[in-house]
Each structure stands twice: as structure tokens, then as C-alpha cells.
């Protein structure tokens, strides 16, 4: 028997007083899956469910805690109090620190101008959402109370309309939702970033929102666009209407809304005054971008600009040079700056604790279902209260027959605890009724008091019958909700702030090409999708190109700064921009990541970069079914400044290679079967349709694939005529040993 080896034990560190620290210094191996399940997943779920995403009542937990605390403090009808008091009181529900609570309350304030329907009436400096530099004052300097519309949030909260749960230390309770009487979820902008998901909800006009909800309650097939034409933003501006985008948002909950700033031209001072901007930007961001364009020489029409925002509201003044057309200048600024921007929508909402991306119709239907439950619970609460009251009054009516008998029973009862049982026996009433009668004051034991109380019986019976009828009839519950919505729209509805422009071209003519500086540059494009633009002087002084680990440069082209770039992607799309849209770089930086810079779709990657000044030549797409499509590059030129074209090539087969052919040339196609075919591009017929399926070029047998496609000029073949054919498609010839060695050397 082998001798047992002594077990290796690490020395345990000791505290100064000799107390041993258990497991100190030991290393434990834990599977990563177990760590994710026990540590990361609970955190992720907490962020999703309890922090970042709004629920069907329109609020995140932080908003709900602040508003409910203010309601409990009596700030709905009372005077304002210091914001610091509100923050301190809210910490009973929200232990995340006073700064986070105050940030939340500031955004809810009217003067901050973040929300179309504000909930907090503030006094003092609450900052401005459209300015990053106009910071809000500390909580000790500002005062706040609830806006009047908050009565619609809390009107039924004490009638068992929503559930309450314990706070974090079980010392008090808070509502899980607020029984809102209008669809607050779509009345205000809401942004939230959770773990693995996010939410971005645009705001809609309150009156239009209520009208749409009413129409859907009456007819589930109602045309939403007839009553809710487009979103409405607190900052105003112009909404550039696109029916396809609106339909996508309304039905699927995803899409974007283009918003353009509003401006006026002051002829006397030859200046433009911008008074409303998109909700996604700030005055300072716009000024920074304009200054950058002026410095780069891309905008030459502006002599000066200044932020003249004051107590009257936002105003950005732009001074023009003499003789400039303000409309053309603004058209250029709309194209190049955040003065025109898109609000991306992602209507991700928690419904019964589960995140769901829903369109406007589905959200309003879910809200209606939630409100129906609230009204039903409120009706049941009122019904139970009236039933209890009626039951007590019937007991009171019983003693009306003989008040003296009741007094005698009480007076002649020896012990106090026997009073209620004796009244029950004497009048045939139950314990609850007897308790009520026994608690009546002596001064109320007169016929007048009792008659007034019993007169309530008839009214209570009518109310009970009405409430029971409501509970039995869903249509009457809907009528109640409709009446409440009509009241909200009448009392709090406001005209639209964002005007809708219907007849606007999707893309405007790009008149900024001439203004873009024209100088030589060298562009680099890598396999991972990084792009660099370097001037000759910088390139001469630079060293080795910095690349991401494992990345390599696949294109190096000398061109000009005002040339156009086309990035063809693996989703049959092409993204267009100019070389001058990118900043001059250096070899020591990785460059711009094209999918992020051009806002490509999730998971989309560029497969070919094409650089052109005149759109001459062809694009050749070779597919895995042996077909090839030759499309004139001019097919991708547009008169309008379109940044993205769909159906750039066929999706009928997998793309093997996309080549830009400035002129006709011979190509070498090699297959996995060890064959090669030399094809002159002139043999492939030209097709005007971008997404044409192409023509057959090379014949492939089962399980064979195309290995490479490259210009034949790059190869040194011993007998190139061996691989040429008169007609297509063809299988090609088997590579000779010397040609195969050449191929291997190049690959």
C-alpha cells in the first residue's frame, strides 16, 4: 500500500491578538457560469426591473418615490417647501443618496423644461434641459411642490386601486404603481439604459393622446394617425413627417423622428435667431459643431455666433456675412450640425414585471387594461364601504323602534363587556351593529339624529345598486375612463409645441461640396472596419500604423478631401459620405470605427470601401452560386444627399466578393476544387438594377466554393490562355503545379 502523502495546507494569517482568520489566503475556483448566476444576473435583473425601465404608469421607481413622498408631505395643495426637505424625506423610500434624488426631482420640474407634462412646480434655479452649462442650484436654495396635474396621479391612491409594498427597511409602505387617469407613459420623454436593453420613449401632446385613447376604447381598429399625427416635444421645433417612420413607431415601437430647429431671420442685423432646438442636443453642442465646421473651412458664411439665452428662453444668434442667403446657410447647418437631429424611439416598457417593446397602439391598450383594473378596484372599495355603512345604519334603524329600551339595556347591564351582547339579544342585530350603537354619544340618542342617519339608507341602496351595475358591465367602466380622459384633456390640454412639416424632401441637395476644402489625403481602411484619413505631410513624418490587435489594412488609396466614400455592407446596403466628413488623423491612432460613425444597424459590417470623385466604373458582385453582377457605379449616385441606400446588391445568394472596377479588366476566379477561370469583366453583361441576381460565370459542383476573386494582373501565370474560355459559365481549368505555387505564395 502506497504511503499517504501529507496534505498541503496554506498557512492561515493571524490577527495581532491571535485570532485566526478562516479561509484567509485560500484560492477557490468557481465556474464562471455560477458567478454569473449568483452575482451578475441578480444585478442585471435589478437594474432592468427596479431602476432603468419605466412601467405602464409612466414612471421609473425613482420618479415614483419622489412624487409619492411629496404627496405624503401634503405638497399637492400646500405651499412649497425647501427641496432639501423633500430629498431628505424621500430617502425613507430611496436610499441611493441625496444627489440622485435631487437630480430626479429637477428633471420633473417645469422650469427645467425636460418634460412636456411637468409634475413639479419649482421656485429657484432648476437649470435648463437644453443647456449643459446652465446647472441647477443646490437643493438648499430651491423650493418645490406638486403641479396641479398630480391630482390625476394620486386621486384614487387611498381607494385600494394599486398594491403597496414595504420600503427597503419595512418601516413604511409605498405604491408599486400610481393610479394615473391618463397615459403618462406617452406624455413625456423617458430615457433609460438597463443591462442588455434600453428604453427611449418620445412624448406626445396630452390632448391628442387622450383623444386617441378614447377613440381606441370605443373602436380597437381606430386609425391612430388621425388623432395622434406625430410626437410633440417640450422644446418645440419642426417635426419632418415621414409616414413610414411614424407607422413603424406606432405599430412596432421602434424608429426615429427627425426634428429640426426653428429660426427667424432678422434682416436689419443680417442674423439668424434660433429659438427652438431638437430635444437630443444642447445649445453648447450646436455651437461647438458650428465652430468646428468654421475652423475646418466647411462653413464660410458665418461671421460670428453667440448664446443669448435669458429669462425669456432659448436664443442662439448667428451673424451672417454680407450677401449670404439665410435659407441656404440654414439648409447647410441642418445637414451638418445637430440643428436637425433624429430622436430614436425604443418603446421598451415593463408590463407585469416583464420588459416588452410595444407600439403606440399596444401601449395604449395595455394602459387601458391597467386603468380598467384601477377603476374596478376603486369601485369595489367604494362598494364595500357603502355596504358597511348601510349595514350599520340598518342596526341603528332597529333601535329607532324603542330608544328607551336601548337605554334601559345599557343602564341595567352590570358589566361593560356585556353591553354589546345584550343589545344584540334585545334588538336582534349582529356584533358590528351593536358595537356601532353602543358607541353613539348620549346626546345623539334622540329621534332627530336617528332619523337623519336612517334617511341615508335609501341613498346608500341606490349607490350600491349603481356600483354593482358598474362592476357587472365593462362598458360602463370604459365610459368612466373616457369621462376622466375628457376631463384631463379639457383641464390640462395645451396646443402642440412641435409643428409638423409634411412636404419636406427626405434629403436636401448637398451644396456643401464646393465649400469643403480640397487637398490631397491618403485614406486607409482595415479588415475590422476602421478608417483613417492622413495628410501627405503627416504621413511622411509618421511611423508604423496603429491597428487593433489582429487587424490589417486592406485598402490604401491616395485621393482628395472632397472625394466621396461608399461603404458596402453585409446587409445589402451602402452608406455614403465624404472623405472630408472625417477629421485628419495620424498613423498613431486607430481611426474611426465605420459601423459606429455611420450609425449602421446592429451587427452590420462593411465589406468594401469605394472611393470616387465622378462615379465612373462598375461594381462587380460575385456570389456563392457562381453568378456575378456588374452594376455601374453611377447607379449609386443620387441628386439628393442620401446617406444610406438599401438593396445595394442582390440578397438571393451569399456574397463572396465585391470589387470596384474603375475600368474593364481581367479577373482570376479560383475554386476550392483547385480550378481557375480567367474572366474579362467585359464578358459580364452590365445590369442597371442594383439588386440584380447577375449572370452565371463559373460552374460549381456540389460542396464546391469560390476561394478568391482578384485582378489577373496580380498573378504571374505560366500559361494564362489555359484558364480562358470563350463562353460563360465555365468550370475553369485545373491549376498547374507552378501556378498553384504562385497562388499559394500570394495567399
What can you see in these coordinates?
It contains 19 helices and 33 strands. The protein has 747 residues and is of the alpha+beta class. It has five domains: 59-179, Topoisomerase II, domain 5 (Alpha-Beta Complex), CATH 3.90.199.10; 262-338, Gyrase A, domain 2 (2-Layer Sandwich); 372-492, Topoisomerase, domain 3 (Orthogonal Bundle), CATH 1.10.268.10; 516-613, no CATH class; 614-640 and 648-747, DNA gyrase/topoisomerase IV, subunit A, C-terminal (Neuraminidase, 6 Propeller).
Short summary:
With 747 residues, the protein is an alpha+beta fold. The protein folds into five domains: 59-179, Topoisomerase II, domain 5, CATH 3.90.199; 262-338, Gyrase A, domain 2 (2-Layer Sandwich), CATH 3.30.1360.40; 372-492, Topoisomerase, domain 3, CATH 1.10.268.10; 516-613, no CATH class; 614-640 and 648-747, DNA gyrase/topoisomerase IV, subunit A, C-terminal (Neuraminidase, 6 Propeller). The strands form ten sheets. The protein has a four-stranded mixed beta sheet with strand order 14-9-8-17. It has a four-stranded antiparallel beta sheet with strand order 10-11-13-12, covered by helices on one side. A four-stranded antiparallel beta sheet has the order 20-18-19-23.
Amino acid at each position: 500500500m502506497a504511503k499517504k502523502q501529507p496534505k498541503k495546507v496554506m498557512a492561515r494569517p493571524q490577527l495581532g491578538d491571535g485570532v485566526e482568520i478562516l479561509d484567509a489566503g485560500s484560492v477557490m475556483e468557481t465556474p464562471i457560469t455560477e458567478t454569473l448566476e449568483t452575482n451578475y444576473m441578480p444585478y442585471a435583473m435589478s437594474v432592468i426591473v427596479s431602476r432603468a425601465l419605466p412601467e405602464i404608469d409612466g414612471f421609473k421607481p425613482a420618479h415614483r418615490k419622489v412624487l409619492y413622498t411629496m404627496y405624503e408631505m401634503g405638497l399637492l395643495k400646500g405651499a412649497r417647501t425647501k427641496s432639501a426637505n423633500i430629498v431628505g424625506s424621500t430617502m425613507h423610500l430611496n436610499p441611493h443618496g441625496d444627489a440622485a434624488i435631487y437630480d430626479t426631482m429637477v428633471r420633473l420640474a417645469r422650469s427645467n423644461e425636460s418634460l412636456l407634462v411637468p409634475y413639479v412646480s419649482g421656485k429657484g434655479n432648476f437649470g435648463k434641459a437644453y443647456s449643459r452649462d446652465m446647472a441647477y442650484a443646490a437643493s438648499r436654495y430651491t423650493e418645490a411642490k406638486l403641479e396641479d396635474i398630480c391630482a390625476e396621479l394620486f386621486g384614487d391612491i387611498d381607494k385600494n386601486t394599486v398594491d403597496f409594498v414595504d420600503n427597503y427597511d419595512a418601516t413604511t409602505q409605498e405604491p408599486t404603481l400610481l393610479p394615473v387617469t391618463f397615459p403618462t407613459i406617452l406624455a413625456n420623454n423617458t430615457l433609460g439604459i438597463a443591462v442588455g436593453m434600453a428604453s427611449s420613449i418620445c412624448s406626445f401632446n396630452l390632448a391628442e393622446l387622450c383623444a386617441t385613447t378614447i377613440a381606441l376604447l370605443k373602436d380597437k381598429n381606430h386609425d391612430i394617425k388621425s388623432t395622434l399625427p406625430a410626437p410633440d416635444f417640450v422644446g418645440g421645433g419642426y417635426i419632418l413627417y415621414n409616414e413610414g417612420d411614424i407607422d413603424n413607431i406606432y405599430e412596432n415601437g421602434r424608429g426615429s423622428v427627425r426634428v429640426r430647429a426653428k429660426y427667424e431671420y432678422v434682416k436689419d442685423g443680417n442674423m439668424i435667431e434660433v429659438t427652438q432646438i431638437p430635444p437630443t442636443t444642447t445649445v453648447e453642442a450646436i455651437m461647438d459643431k458650428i465652430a468646428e465646421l468654421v475652423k475646418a473651412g466647411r462653413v464660410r458664411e458665418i461671421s460670428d455666433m453667440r448664446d443669448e439665452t435669458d429669462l425669456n428662453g432659448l436664443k442662439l444668434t448667428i451673424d451672417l456675412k454680407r450677401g449670404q442667403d439665410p435659407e441656404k446657410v440654414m439648409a447647410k447647418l441642418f445637414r451638418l450640425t445637430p440643428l436637425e437631429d433624429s430622436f430614436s424611439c425604443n418603446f421598451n416598457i415593463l408590463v407585469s414585471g416583464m420588459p416588452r417593446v410595444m407600439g403606440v397602439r399596444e401601449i395604449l391598450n395595455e394602459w387601458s387594461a391597467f386603468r380598467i383594473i384601477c377603476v374596478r378596484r376603486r369601485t369595489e372599495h367604494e362598494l364595500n364601504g357603502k355596504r358597511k355603512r348601510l349595514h350599520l345604519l340598518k342596526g341603528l334603524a332597529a333601535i329607532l323602534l324603542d330608544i328607551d329600551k336601548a337605554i334601559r339595556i345599557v343602564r341595567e347591564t352590570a358589566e361593560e363587556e356585556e353591553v354589546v351582547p345584550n343589545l344584540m339579544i334585545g334588538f336582534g342585530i349582529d356584533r358590528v351593529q351593536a358595537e356601532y350603537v353602543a358607541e353613539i354619544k348620549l346626546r345623539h340618542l334622540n329621534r332627530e339624529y336617528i332619523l337623519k342617519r336612517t334617511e341615508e339608507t335609501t341613498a346608500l341602496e341606490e349607490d350600491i345598486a349603481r356600483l354593482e351595475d358598474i362592476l357587472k358591465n365593462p362598458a360602463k367602466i370604459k365610459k368612466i375612463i373616457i369621462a376622466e380622459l375628457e376631463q384631463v384633456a379639457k383641464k390640462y390640454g395645451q396646443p402642440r409645441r412641435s409643428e409638423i412639416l409634411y412636404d419636406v424632401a427626405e434629403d436636401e441637395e448637398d451644396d456643401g461640396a464646393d465649400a469643403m476644402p480640397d487637398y490631397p489625403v491618403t485614406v486607409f481602411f482595415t479588415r475590422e472596419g476602421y478608417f483613417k484619413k492622413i495628410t501627405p505631410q503627416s504621413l511622411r513624418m509618421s511611423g508604423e500604423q496603429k491597428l487593433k490587435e489582429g487587424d490589417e489594412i486592406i485598402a490604401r488609396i491616395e485621393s482628395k478631401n472632397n472625394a466621396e466614400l461608399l461603404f458596402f455592407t453585409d446587409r445589402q446596403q451602402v452608406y455614403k459620405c465624404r472623405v472630408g466628413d472625417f477629421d485628419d488623423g495620424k498613423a498613431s491612432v486607430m481611426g474611426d470605427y465605420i459601423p459606429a460613425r455611420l450609425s449602421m444597424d446592429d451587427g452590420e459590417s462593411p465589406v468594401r470601401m469605394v472611393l470616387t470623385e465622378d462615379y465612373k466604373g462598375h461594381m462587380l458582385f460575385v456570389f456563392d452560386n457562381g453568378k456575378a453582377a456588374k452594376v455601374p457605379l453611377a447607379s449609386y449616385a443620387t441628386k439628393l444627399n442620401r446617406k444610406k441606400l438599401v438593396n445595394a446588391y442582390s440578397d438571393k445568394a451569399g456574397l463572396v466578393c465585391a470589387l470596384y472596377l474603375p475600368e474593364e479588366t481581367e479577373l482570376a476566379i479560383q475554386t476550392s476544387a483547385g480550378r481557375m477561370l480567367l474572366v474579362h469583366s467585359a464578358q459580364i453583361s452590365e445590369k442597371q438594377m442594383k439588386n440584380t441576381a447577375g449572370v452565371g460565370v463559373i460552374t460549381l459542383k456540389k460542396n464546391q466554393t469560390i476561394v478568391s476573386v482578384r485582378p489577373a494582373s496580380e498573378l504571374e501565370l505560366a500559361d494564362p490562355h489555359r484558364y480562358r474560355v470563350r463562353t460563360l459559365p465555365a468550370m475553369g481549368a485545373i491549376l498547374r503545379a507552378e501556378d498553384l505555387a504562385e497562388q499559394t505564395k500570394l495567399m
